[in-house]
Amino acid sequence: MTDMRLVVVGAAGRMGQALVRAVTAMDGVTLSAAIEREGSAALGRDAGELAGLGPLGVRITDDPLTAFAASEGVLDFTTPKASLWFAELAAQARIVHIIGTTGWVDGELEPLKAAARHARLVKSGNMSLGVNLLAALVRKAAAALGPDFDLEIVEMHHRHKVDAPSGTALLLGEAAAAGRGIALAEHSVRVRDGHTGPRPAGDIGFATLRGGSVVGDHTVILAGDGERVELSHKAEDRQIFARGAVKAALWARDKKPGLYSMADVLGLND
Ligand SMILES: NC(=O)C1=CN([C@@H]2O[C@H](COP(=O)(O)OP(=O)(O)OC[C@H]3O[C@@H](n4cnc5c(N)ncnc54)[C@H](OP(=O)(O)O)[C@@H]3O)[C@@H](O)[C@H]2O)C=CC1
Ligand SMILES: O=C(O)C1=N[C@H](C(=O)O)C[C@H](O)C1
């Protein structure tokens, strides 16, 4: 089979550069194009040079339409607004769309479901093997320990992160809620301040820390009477997410249109 031609959108960003490095390093894929927004200072620069690899002969442009027409898949870690636009374009071009973007709000996922009627989308708040395994463990732990164990999710990220709680924290919250057989939206507590009163049973709490250069730390605490279980993942290098995204693109290459998760890619739902 020929190498899968992948375009990286948001190619000048932290994850965009990691994706360019991963596509270049991994077998079975080749970098077809690199996209940034109109007016970006990165336009015209070589995507490889920007990612610290030396020249690759792929200049960054602001023309996704042409890039998507010449590609089989798009790797997208940008913003919800940009990802929704890229989803429309990817569906029109009938190419694979891997979405790592986080910070989605209610209602924004509906257009993605529409796009998935024609396109193969893989979307996850965390593309690493470790976090997706952690989610499976959290689901099991929440089911086994039940609501007598209070569930709290703590995350810490670098000072540049703009959304909270992290996509990963929410993914872990969904896993915990699934383990308990409840809807996360009806039980999640994202902020506590002032005289909150005692903790209501069944809540799933989120605590957000921001600072420095932390790539991504997550801990799920299940606190019972007299004992506590803590399940943690610490990301040390953004390449784990980038490699996961490339794996997802290769996996989706021969799949039917649909909205898939990283657990599907990794076979954790089997
Ligand atoms: N699922 C996962 O495994 C992971 C997800 N993430 C998520 O990925 C996203 C990006 O993170 P990060 O790389 O740190 O953020 P950055 O801000 O470093 O990168 C985002 C890039 O996307 C660009 N961009 C924004 N809008 C457009 C557009 N319309 N067209 C083209 N490019 C655009 C930005 O350009 P500009 O700066 O000009 O706005 C920027 O270069 C976040 O939502 C983050 O949470 C991060 C790591 C792992
Ligand atoms: O913005 C980041 O950096 C990260 N975002 C993702 C998230 O919101 O969970 C994944 C990872 O933790 C890094």
From TrEMBL:
Lineage: superkingdom: Bacteria
Catalytic residues, chain numbering: 157 (proton donor/acceptor), 161 (proton donor)
Binding-site list for NADP(+): 37
Primary enzyme class: oxidoreductase
Coiled-coil features, chain-numbered ranges: none
Keywords from the UniProt entry: Amino-acid biosynthesis, Cytoplasm, Diaminopimelate biosynthesis, Lysine biosynthesis, NAD, NADP, Oxidoreductase
Positions of (S)-2,3,4,5-tetrahydrodipicolinate binding: 158, 167-168
Keyword Cell division annotated: no
HAMAP family, A to Z: DapB
Protein name in UniProt: 4-hydroxy-tetrahydrodipicolinate reductase
Gene of this entry: dapB
